[in-house]
Amino acid sequence: METMISEQISIDKSDWTPVKFGDVVFEPKESSKDPKADGIKHVVGLEHIESEDIHLRHSANLDTSTTFSKGFAEGDVLFGRRRAYLKKAAQAKFSGICSGDITVLRAKDNLLPQLLPFIVQNDKFFDYAIKHSAGGLSPRVKFKDLANYEFLLPPKDQQAKLAELLWAMDEVIERENEVLEKIDISKRTYEKKWLNKYTSGIEKKLPINYKVYRLSEIAEITGGSTPSRDVKEFWNGDIPWLTPTDVTNHNRITLDRTKEYITESGLRNISNRLYPIGSLLYCSRATIGHAIINDVPMATNQGFSNFICNEKVTNYFLYFLLKYLTNELTRLAGGSTFLEISKSSIRRFRVVIPPKGVMKNITGKLLEYENTRLELESKISSSKALQKSLINQVF
């Protein structure tokens, strides 16, 4: 893609014209007082626009009541004017109505409509919108303020070449995302075929050498806790101390570092356990279902149920199995402030374990899916970074 950029475009801005956003873009004032009679099929709220995604992929319909009346057309860019720091701006591939917290943007004749989404996705444009937002908890920015954003506009013929390049880059990213989706679908299909959910009487239906165990029979299961924040001597040591945030923001199976570290005295204070390498550290509170296998000895806070597997199961197989059974485990959770699965409920939870040879094959295949996914996600991330770099360079 780097070669494609250098071959197709040389960014010479000597003949570009300084313009204000309002010189090339306007806010249409179309509306629908009776969406059903007008044949409206798509209703868009802020929740339907994904952060830093140029495509509008979601919408609701009129099956549920709506107070929205602001109209938009195919090709318009829907900009989330409330909390602009969320960087929500997407081009619509259909017409409809949208929330008042969305500003509809449409290109004037001197701007190629295909280029508008990329101008808005520029980091400098978002920074400008954030700076000019007003309000406390839910700051909003008005179009009259966005209209004063200044940038250089290329001549129409260069706009066309630039739009062609940027959309070609976007197409590469979209194809990579489609491949990723197919991998995820294939993985889910494989899991459904080879990973079993326990149901009453399943023992009679299982293949030979498959067994049903309570989780307490295949692993030692204990939890963690938090040293007192008031005692400085307990913190900033060299013992990794895992919290759910470390896990939910991590996209790999294994982990070798944490955001916070505790000291030996902090570990003794909470009577916590230092979990050996290869333990399965499973979120059983709030963010139920996230898990990692530690590459270094770690302690955890109280949001975890931690598994040290015995000879009946491998840590990687149990990792994939518990992730697959997230919905079933979540049903065991209770709590008024946040959901949490009690240790007793987890220990009693029944799982189906295959013989070791089958377990090894299943784990190997799921690891293949995982590695392929990580490689593709890295490629997509690089493609997006390259596209964003060009957008920021141009506008």
UniProtKB/TrEMBL annotation:
Keyword Cell membrane tagged: no
InterPro entries on file: Restrct_endonuc_typeI_TRD, Restrct_endonuc_typeI_TRD_sf, Type-I_RS_S_subunit
Name of the protein in its database record: Restriction endonuclease subunit S
Molecular-function annotations in GO: endonuclease activity
One Pfam family it belongs to: Methylase_S
Provenance organism: Gelidibacter pelagius
UniProt xrefs under CDD domains: RMtype1_S_EcoJA69PI-TRD1-CR1_like
Ranges where the Type I restriction modification DNA specificity domain occurs: 14-183, 207-380
Family: Belongs to the type-I restriction system S methylase family.
Keywords from the UniProt entry: DNA-binding, Endonuclease, Hydrolase, Nuclease, Restriction system
Record lineage: Bacteria, Pseudomonadati, Bacteroidota, Flavobacteriia, Flavobacteriales
